[in-house]
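Sequence, please.
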């Protein structure tokens, strides 16, 4: 038995859900399920007790899940319990497999009608159906009040971002497509950590910018092609773990909602842990470390 298999079986026995294990290990739900089935572990039903923890409605031992994450966990648990693939679940609900995956990974805000079609396709109990729909309504309400502002022109929000960047002491950047402009030397910033995918770093112009800027208060990290987890499609920067600025073609989305900021910080930290920094980054890229 490998260390990965041992970890999965032990954590599942302690009450972790399949969805929680996918988050912890970076592996797919299918991989987790295969390990459990191969080891003869009995797959728990939705809401069934495991190690003193109610599974299926979200794991909240280490932190409180947001309503959106809780709903995502519940939808995933329902599909696994129904023994349906994402493709079949999507066909039953009249949506794509990609959309099912995004809903289960909390990447999009679900519509109540989408959740209704999914749980009806899974043939869940009335209690679980009611729970899912109530969560969907709460998520929709939260989304309407979320503190995110789309900037298309000069506005107070843009001025707010500029002031925050000038005052920020720690800036974390995930650069999905290009190396971003870095803070000027006269700002209060003490630390800038930038993570870029290897594909970006291997572009000659971007690689030159990384080699020139890396060092001092600026630390670059390269996310290898062979990393366990794929990076986000959209870049973002976190200012003092209090504000997130997500870059879009048409402008920027400013996020100050605490739960959303925490999720971006956690995502960046996970990417940074997977990235190669310092000498390891230079060796990965084949750059001269002298």
């Amino acid at each position: 038995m490998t260390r990965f298999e041992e970890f999965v079986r032990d954590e599942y026995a302690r009450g972790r859900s399949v969805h929680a294990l996918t988050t912890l290990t970076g592996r797919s739900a299918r991989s987790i399920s295969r390990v459990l089935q191969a080891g003869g572990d009995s797959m728990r039903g939705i809401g069934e007790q495991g190690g003193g923890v109610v599974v299926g409605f979200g794991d909240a031992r280490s932190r409180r899940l947001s309503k959106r994450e809780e709903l995502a966990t519940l939808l995933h648990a329902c599909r696994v319990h129904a023994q349906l693939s994402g493709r079949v679940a999507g066909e039953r609900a009249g949506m794509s497999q990609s959309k099912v995956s995004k809903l289960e990974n909390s990447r999009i805000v679900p519509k109540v009608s989408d959740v209704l079609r999914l749980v009806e396709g899974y043939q869940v109990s009335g209690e679980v159906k009611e729970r899912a729909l109530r969560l969907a309504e709460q998520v929709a309400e939260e989304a309407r009040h979320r503190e995110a502002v789309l900037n298309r022109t000069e506005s107070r929000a843009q001025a707010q971002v500029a002031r925050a960047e000038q005052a920020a002491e720690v800036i974390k950047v995930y650069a999905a497509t290009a190396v971003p402009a870095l803070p000027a030397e006269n700002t209060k910033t003490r630390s800038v950590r930038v993570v870029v995918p290897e594909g970006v770093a291997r572009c000659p112009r971007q690689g030159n910018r990384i080699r020139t800027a890396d060092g001092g208060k600026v630390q670059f990290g390269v996310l290898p092609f062979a990393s366990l987890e794929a990076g986000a499609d959209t870049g973002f920067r976190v200012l003092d773990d209090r504000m997130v600025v997500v870059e879009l073609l048409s402008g920027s989305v400013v996020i100050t909602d605490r739960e959303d900021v925490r999720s971006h910080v956690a995502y960046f930290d996970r990417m940074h842990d997977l990235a190669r920094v310092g000498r390891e980054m230079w060796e990965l890229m084949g750059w001269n470390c002298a």
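The chain has two domains: 3-142, 149-285.
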